[in-house]
Design a protein that fits this description.
Layout: H1 2-28, H2 34-37, E1 46-51, E2 56-61, E3 64-70, E4 83-86, E5 89-97, E6 112-121, E7 128-131, E8 150-152, H3 154-163, E9 169-173, H4 179-183, H5 204-216, E10 220-222, E11 233-235, E12 241-243, H6 252-261, E13 265-266, E14 270-272, H7 282-287, E15 293-297, E16 303-305, E17 309-315
Parallel strand pairs: 1-9, 7-8, 13-17, 14-17
Antiparallel strand pairs: 1-2, 2-3, 4-9, 5-6, 6-7, 10-11, 12-16, 15-17
Length: 317
């Protein structure tokens, strides 16, 4: 009997020691929250704030907000995760294919999107901020339709592409949370918040004017991608390329007018019926009113030569 007790003690004692050792970190260190992790990230330079409650994204330099845009984020079942992140990888133009995340293209949630612009990944699972040319314009700031990413108009995504680089912090607040505010307490007060640019207040027509003014002033847009040097700068100065206005979701006549004012030639209208639309794009058709623009090619928010042809698809009146 004594031998059994001694033998069992030889087994139990190491187990008890291991158990006690696992409790020591819990006793000494409190549970690490998102804000505690952030102590390693500096907000003194450029950083990005995503507000899922108001569906906005803001570029900051320290405590100074510089630019705010409307977004759409993850829909129910594909919710965008709040927290503190950094830009991990950048791709200026790419194809996004649902098959790469395990969703067949022809499935109800499937998709295949070419020429997705200004993608900046902040999670290794593929979650990113990027441009969005396929959603109706009214979606931004009003409805979450993505599979977890934070997307915005291409013209806004272009700004954040030039603003950020590898390592730029991204703080995402869910409704009712304010991680960003708590982390800004030690920063000096803002110096020029009155200069914030809020492109959601601009119409598609004067958005073109703003870009043209930037071109005239030789605005610099960073071309850094995939870890290249942030000092690589490209100056947009060609006068023959203009921004394609954001007309998706507008009445056909209004959209045509804006495209023509921007200097484009508009093709004969391609009227679309429900059965003409690919299954994975039918939600766009159903959310667009009859007689309103479903899509244009080249995509809105991209640059195209003045005088080039724009193809236009409209939901059948």
């Amino acid at each position: 009997m004594l031998k059994k007790i001694i033998k069992n003690r030889r087994i139990l004692i190491p187990l008890i020691v291991v158990f006690i050792l696992t409790l020591i970190p819990v006793a000494i260190f409190p549970k690490i929250t998102t804000s505690k992790i952030e102590y390693a990230i500096s907000l003194e330079g450029h950083w990005i704030h995503v507000d899922l409650g108001n569906l906005t994204i803001t570029a900051y330099n320290g405590s100074d907000p510089l630019y705010t845009a409307l977004i759409t984020a993850g829909k129910p079942g594909f919710d965008t995760s709040p927290g503190v992140f950094t830009v991990l990888r950048r791709v200026k133009s790419e194809i996004m294919d649902s098959a790469t995340i395990g969703i067949p293209r022809n499935a109800p949630e499937g998709y295949y999107l070419a020429n997705v612009l200004y993608t900046q990944y902040y999670e290794w699972d593929g979650t990113a901020i990027h441009g969005n040319y396929w959603s109706p314009d009214w979606v931004f700031g009003n409805l979450n339709v993505s599979h977890g990413c934070v997307s915005m108009r291409n013209s806004d995504a272009a700004y954040f592409w030039g603003f950020a680089s590898i390592g730029t912090p991204i703080i995402i607040d869910s409704p009712g949370e304010n991680i960003a505010a708590s982390l800004m307490r030690n920063l000096p007060p803002p110096n020029h918040s009155e200069n914030i640019i809020m492109p959601q207040e601009k119409s598609a027509a004067n958005q073109t004017q703003v870009i043209s003014e930037k071109q005239a002033n030789s605005t610099n847009i960073s071309t850094m991608e995939n870890g290249h040097s942030p000092n690589s700068i490209q100056t947009i100065s060609t006068p023959i390329e203009v921004l394609v206005p954001e007309v998706v979701g507008l009445l056909e006549a209004e959209g045509r007018s804006q495209l023509q004012k921007a200097g484009f030639i508009v093709s004969k209208t391609n009227y679309q019926k429900f059965e003409d639309v690919a299954e994975n794009s039918r939600w766009i058709f159903e959310s667009t009113l009859p007689g309103h623009i479903l899509s244009i090619t080249p995509a809105q928010g991209t640059f195209a030569e003045r005088g080039s042809l724009i193809q236009i698809a409209v939901r059948e009146p």
